[in-house]
Amino acid sequence: MPGDGVARVPGVSDVVQLFATCLGDLVFPDAVGDAETLLREAGFRVELPSRQVCCGQPAYNAGHHAAARRVARSFAKAFSRSAPIVLPSGSCTTMVTHYLPELLGVEPYDVWELSAFLDSRGVELPRRNEGRTIAYHDSCHMLRELKVSGEPRRLLERSGATLVELPRADLCCGFGGTFSVRQPEISLSMADDKLGGAKGAGAEFLVTADPGCLMHLDGRVRKVGGVPVVHLATALARGVGAAAAEGLAAR
Amino acid sequence: MSGAAKLQQESGSFRVIARGKLNDDRIQGALDLSVSRLRGLRLDAWEQLDDLEELRERAHELRMRVVNDLEGYLAQFTQALEARGGHVHRAATPEEASAIIVRLCQERKATLVAKSKSMATEEIGLNAALEAAGITPVETDLGEYILQLDGTHPVHIIAPAIEKTKEQIAAMFTAIEGREVPAELEALTASARRQLRQVFLDADVGITGCNMAVAETGTITLVTNEGNGRLVSSLPRTHIAVMGLERLVPTLDDLSVILRLLARSATGQRLTSSTTLITGPRRAGELDGPEELHVVVIDNGRTNLLRGRYKEMLACIRCGACLNVCPIFRKTGGAAYGPVYSGPMGAVLVPLYVGLGNAPDLPHASTLCGACTEACPVKIPLHELLLDLRRDMVEEGVAPRWERWAFTAWSFAWSTPLGYRLSTRLARLGQPLGMAAGPGKVWGAGRALPQLARRRYRDRPRG
Amino acid sequence: MADTAPDTTPPAATRAAAVAPTLVERFVASVEANGFRVHRGALPDIPGAGVSVALYGLVDSGSVVLSSAPAEPRANSLLPDVHVTVLVEDRILLSLPDLFAALGNGLPSSLAIVSGPSKSADIEQLLAVGVHGPKEEHVVLLPPGSDPGDVLTGLTADDFRRPVVAPAGPAAPAAGVGA
Lengths: 251, 463, 179
Description:
heterotrimer; A: 2 domains; four-stranded parallel beta sheet; 13 helices; 49% helix; B: six-stranded parallel beta sheet; 21 helices; globular
């Protein structure tokens, strides 16, 4: 349930399992570190099961179910059911929640996207984004499959940010996994619309909770310039200004 | 030799056509304006419905009831309509359907046919078949008429001529009328009214589609704003209605559920200006109305959809709501998908009608964002069906072999932590090279390449 | 208002009744929102208008329901530039389910639910009125229990047998039409 803003006092037995996800592990380890920092600051003991690999989504979404199943089994072997599993990724959370159990024939997991978890536990946040104007980009998985859209915004506001809404926030950013290379022109046009919308809304930074969207939009900004894009965990754990200073957000 | 619409498309054609549309600012503007407007109208109209979710559930359920017993409901419909003096003809293929209609026209010595909007008639290539038989069909929907004059296909099922300008239309009308028709809305409307009024009055046969047929009463329903559906089905002596075999509802009550959702979902209206229920030809004592009513029921691949989950697609009521929320349709318009069906519903239907190998781009012309599923009034899980189509492409061997090999190899590498470590270490080493070819090169054309971090997160020391 | 003015506020119950719109008022608002012009008691004087007597009116969708019948040719509501519908107030229903319940299985050959004048947004998404069907739709409301024949005096059966004649115009563009 959404937090009521009361500061928690967690017991030392509050354990969570962190799933870095393949993109997090390989391309955005700093964002994963920021996610872990947020969880520890909130008083949780964070385990990083060492046998974790990938949820199998890239293959699943491309129709390769056998390949997806093979990789997804590594998730079942790595994670126990004794503690909630938290991911700094909306799309991977969707895969594990909605598709993986049926793919493997296993029971559903107690799995959470990071902001949904933090918000549900009523976590307090230092105001690291005081005075910053931020636009939050809903990934399609979070918006429509997980129905998590208020939580990231609440957390950003609690961190002191002034939020501005993107125009046509319902429109996909254009990543879509293999779509980004099957229909690159359409994909880029959609990215440009999203980034242009952030600029037009007066955002200093664009924040997203999905590494797929992040890779695509940040990649575009690094190529043609635009509003810097930052992972939600980084925005909350360091503040967008510090992130930029530390070279974690291109301009 | 069939004039049936060519729904098949070559691999790669979607991207080629999309590029052309993306480079045309005017088309981008027209598309955005149209779909945003229609989406906004639907959202406003849906908000007015207190029982929206209940209606959608009911609509889904009643349509699935029909899909699960198509022959039963068709039989009921046929019996009810024949009792009222109508005729029902069944056709499996486009050729059969066109042949039946051409024969009906020839038997009645028809030379001029007035048509109101029917995607089913486009599917079967009816206009070409009529013309080949020396019969002239004239489209009377303003947008379809404009496109007929232009010789092009509709690009949106509700707003077919989205891409035409007033100036382009004025030029066409001026050529026909033999005098200057200014590029102003009132003048263009008056010109169209003049041109088409004569067609309604002179046509020997009127051909319409049918949005929904009611099995219980033998009724067909025409839904238009222009009033041309009524004109086409009232003035000519013979009325032929063409419908897909799945376009049925069991009872009048069920029809009211669909009608309460249809116009609201398509254009935001409560009902269109003209919603007409036709139950048989004219009755004794009536001064006008067709003397004969023939309903031609077509299959044309619909029964292909009856396997597994795909039969949910047969619930579609052709409202266009999914087109108006699709971020890809917003960029490309309908042409990239094909001449009849486009957007998410087209991306699901066409591969099922013509075979995955004959429309391999369509299931992947999507980011699976799910907006279509959210917008569908009859709750078809469109994006999940696209995912199923992608799976079938792999299982049926339509997906390219190299792609299957790549995912298989990847899945073996990543099925264990050790394999993952080794393959990602290699990838990191080969990063500069790997990114210069294949997907890396495509990505890199417009975006900076993602950099594999020097140290994986899992390898960082844990305190 | 003077402080000593008598209190003329009606009692609460009457006020509530006066505030809640009647079915007829809701119908009027609904059809007006759809572009109908509403008249009470008598036909507007519009030469050349086609006149129909409605079977029912619908509040929810703002519609008049026209049934084909010997005395009700379809052409009356299709060909003229202006169409007038006569509707007796006690034939106003709420919604489509009510309409179908009232009709039972007795459907006419043509049941036209008309919810506004003919229109199209096919030219650059701009609203054009009167594309093929009537450019104007009017409704004449008659009090409950009325006989529509009362306002149709002066019109004879011949008026309902208007020949189907086109206004003079250019020839059908048969030759110029491509595939």
